[in-house]
Structure formats: C-alpha cells, structure tokens
Amino acid sequence: MKKKIVHNKSRFLVLFIVFSIFSIFGCTPDNNQSTFGTAGPIANSQANLFLLIFAIAVVVFIAVEAALIYISIKFRRKEGDKLPYQTHGNTKLEITWTIIPAVILIFVAIPTLIGIWSQQNGVPDDKGQVLNIEAVGHQWWFEFRYSDYEVITSNELHIPKGRPVSFKLSSQDVIHSFWVPKIAGKVDMVPLNDNYIWMIADEVGEFYGQCAEFCGTSHAHMRFRVFVHEEEDFLAWVDQMHTPADPPLPNTAESRGQMLFAANCSMCHTNNSTTPGSYIMEINTQDARWNNWIDDTENSALVSAPNLTHFGTHSTLGSGIKDLNHETLVEWIADPSSIKQGTRMQKQAMVYNTRDGKANLTDGEISDIATYLLSLKPGSGAELVIDDIPADGVIDAEAVFATNCAACHSLGNDVIVGPGMGGIKDRAADRVSGLSAYEYIYESIVEPQAYIVEGYPPVMPGWASLGDETVNALVEYLLTLE
Ligand code: CUA
After folding, report:
1. Are both 366 and 340 inside the same structural domain?
2. How far does the centroid of ligand 1 lie from the alpha carbon of residue 217, in Å?
3. Ligand 1 contact, 211 CB (< 6 A)
4. Which atom of ligand 1 approaches the CA of 216 most closely?
5. Domain limits for position 16
C-alpha cells in the first residue's frame, strides 16, 4: 500500500515537471501573447521591471537554498548524537532577516512606483499628437470607437506606429479587461465607470489582444487583433473606412445575401457606417441595444452586436478565433456555437429560434449571406446607378418592390424589419411638415436615415442606385397601397 502511494507521488512529480516545461514555452518572446518580445515602450518598461524583480528573486532563491542545503548536510544528525540544546529567539538573527527583505522590497518598489506614475496620468505632453479611441467590452467581443475620425470597428484595432494612443475603457455588460501583451499592460473595462490606458507601438505588424478578466462562457475566446501601420497607411485606412462599399449588382449572390442580411441580421448588426453622421448613429444604436438588453436580458429582441462595416477586410472571425474566409463564415452563420460557445447571437436572434439552435436558412441562403459579407469592402467611391429600365421603358414597380424591398417590408400592415406599406399614403402625408406624401416616400427610399420612424432600427440602406425613374415608379406604386 505504502509503495503504491510513493509510486503515485513520483508519477505526479513527473507530470508536474513536464507541465512546467511546456508552460515555460509560452514565455518565448516570439509567442503571440508573450510579454517578453515587446513592441512598445510601456510593455518594454514592464518587461524590464519584471526581469529586475526576477533577477532579485533568483539571487534570494539561490542564497536561501544554498544555506538550506549547507545546514542540512553540516548539522545532519549522526549516530550517537544527543538531543541538542533547546533555545528560543535570537534578536540579532531576527533583526537581520527583517531588515534584508525590507531593503529588497524598497529597492523593488522604487522602479515599480516610477513605472505606475509614468503610465497612470495619461499621455505625457512630449509624446506627440494623441489618437483617442474608446474601447468598449461586450460579451464576448471588443468595439473600438475612433472619436477623432468618426470610425467604428469591431475586434480589429488599427493604430499608427510611434503615435501615442489613449484609450477610454468601458463595458456594456459585465467587467472585462483590455490587454495587448506586447504593446501595453492591462486595465479592467468596468460598466458605468470609465478607465484609461495609453500605449505606443514602435513596430509595424499584427499583434494579439485578449480579455483578461473572466467574463462568462466565452471569456477565453474574447480576443482582438491590433494592426500597427505607418502613419500614412493608417490615414489611408481611415479614408477607406469612410468609403462606402459598392452596392451589389442585381441578381447575384451578393444581392440575395444583402436582402437576407437585411431580413435576418440587420436588427443587431450595422454594416454601413461610412457616411457622415453614421458614427453617432451607431453609438446611439449600440446604447439602445444595451438598454433593451438590460431591460430583459433573457428575452430582449436586441443585443449588442459587432459593427460589420467593411467586414470583408477583416482577417479573423468570432473575435479572433478563426481565419475569415467563405468556409469558416458559412460554418459560423449556420451554427455559431460550433466555433464559439455561448454567443448571444445564437441565443437572441430569431433566425436561430429552432429546435437544434441552427440557423433557419438553407445552405444556399447561408452561402449567399457569407458571400455578401465578404464583399463588404471600400468601393470605387463612384455612385453606382443600376438604372435597370426594361427595353420597352415600362417599369414594373411591383416587381421592383418584390426584388428589393419585400424582404423587410410587407404590402399590408405586418412588420417584418421595417413597417408594412399598407396605407402608407395617409401616414406619409403629415409625417414631415413641408413634405408631401410623395416627397416623403421618395426621400425615405433614397436616404432612409433622414426620417427613421420611432421604434424601428436604423438599418435600411439607401436605394438611390435604383435610379431616379425606378424610384419614382416605386413611389407611385406605394401610394396606391390601401
Ligand atoms: Cu471579456 Cu473576459
């Protein structure tokens, strides 16, 4: 029996040593989440501080172990030894081993406090022009708001090299923590209590970020990527974020995907934050989603969701879990929890309200949505007019409605995503003073965000690309609906 316990102990020891050795591999400087291969002055000062403390700890460890081994051997009990003289207390020794650790702790505290002070009070004035970003934690993804440039991204952070970046950190649900191991330290993201951190990256490249505070089922999968660019490349990226994607051509996978997206996904995901005003609108929408979710966390129709503007330019999926491509995106849309356990999307969105929790869409429909999302990239910038007028010049407005609008609007009173179109003539007449029903409907098709009716999500894309004649025909048709 005793032999077996000894056997188990040695097996545990071997396991422990093997595990420790593998753990140490995680510290190699080229590991993505290692704090040693640093790419910024703050991470560098923290790494240096760690190495200093580690060096002191090594000296203490060697001194203590050496003394222990020396004393164990020298004063080992020999054959015939009697019980040694019993004593209690030794003032000299006790003072010595109180003073030595106190001196060591003071020695360690000085550079630690200098480091904390230098990073605590925001970016020092001599570091150059500051880039301000608000980082918001959500279960389980990151939102980045560039207040200086009115740009919003999710899970992918783009910053310029050598410029100080100041982050305001908050959360729209539970406590998360913002951490970019190679560039800066970590600070908690607390709901209703803003925290701050700043960083400078001094190397161009792609770096890993990670939530570092346990925040629920998918905490370990709450990651993000940091892309550090040269200043001019960063400004070019900002420019691209203000360039709308080209609208899909009619009767393509992209156009079918766009309609399916509008009908099934656009209640929670914005995908067109490129125009002036869309920055504030997205923040308001995100706040509205947050409030809606707080009111009823189990059954709310709206939950916070990543902004998918120019999603086709992203490199990863599910906040950094998988590489983004058509195959992984199809897998994600069909059954998100096969990739990331516990996503709110699967729990809350109507389209997943099925027996097995998988999307209530055909394989073809899922593929079309994926194709559409991957096509979301900065466009040519030119206003694309489809102007799909038949050869005989007669526009079939009913068919235009069926192709472009019916996924979100019914012809009666039923609400799909937007309001039903039945009796729109009477409602439109006195909606905006100075606009006739005709003008109001026309404007609402071409530039829908101008007159969002309360209670509806601001998700409708503008349809100016249909061309003036087609939009006019559509308005005439809508005015006839009882
Ligand atoms: Cu968010 Cu852990």
Report:
1. yes
2. 9
3. yes
4. 2
5. 1-30
Contact 397, 477 (CB under 8 A): yes
Question: Residue 187 in contact with residue 195, Cβ under 8 Å?
Answer: yes
**CB of 138 sitting under 6 A from ligand 1:** no
The pair of three-digit structure tokens given for residue 266, joined into one six-digit string: 């656009």
The total number of structural domains that make up the chain: 4
Local structure of 338: helix, strand or coil: helix
Q: Would you state the structure tokens that stand for residue 94, as one six-digit string? A: 């006790």
C-alpha of residue 394 to centroid of ligand 1, in Å? 57
Q: Is residue 473 part of a domain?
A: yes
Alpha helices (H) along 189-302 = 231-241, 253-264, 278-295
Per-residue confidence (pLDDT) for residue 214, from 0 to 100: 95
- Decide whether any atom of ligand 1 lies within 6 Å of the 213 Cβ: yes
- Atom of ligand 1 lying closest to residue 222 CA: 1
| Ligand 1, atom 1: closest residue by C-alpha | 176
Residue 10 carries which DSSP code? H
Q: Which residue pairs from 92-96 have beta carbons closer than 8 angstroms and sit at least 24 positions apart in sequence?
A: none
What residue type is 190 in one-letter code? V
Ligand 1 atom nearest to CA at 175 = 1
Question: What pTM was computed for the model?
Answer: 0.76
The two tokens of residue 450 are: 């101008």
CA–centroid distance, residue 344 to ligand 1 (Å)? 14
Short-list 43, 164, 50, CA closest to 111: 50
Q: Is the beta carbon of 189 within 6 A of some atom in ligand 1? A: no
Q: Which of 436, 435, 437 is nearest to 481 (CA)?
A: 437
What is the whole-number distance in angstroms between the Cα of residue 294 and the centre of ligand 1?
18
Q: State the closest ligand 1 atom to the C-alpha of 214, by its place in the atom list counted from 1.
A: 2
Domain membership flag for residue 383: no
- CA 43 to centroid of chain Cα atoms: 22
Q: Which atom of ligand 1 is nearest to the CA of 174?
A: 1
Residues 180 and 68 reside in one and the same domain: yes
Residue range 119-145, pLDDT digits in tens: 888 888 888 899 999 999 999 999 999
Tens digit of each residue's pLDDT (9 = 90 or more) over 191-221: 999 999 999 999 999 999 999 999 999 999 9
What is the phi/psi pair of residue 339, to 5°? -105, -40
Distance CA 158, CA 388 (A): 39
Asked if residue 363 and residue 266 are part of one domain, the reply reads yes
3-state secondary structure of 141: strand
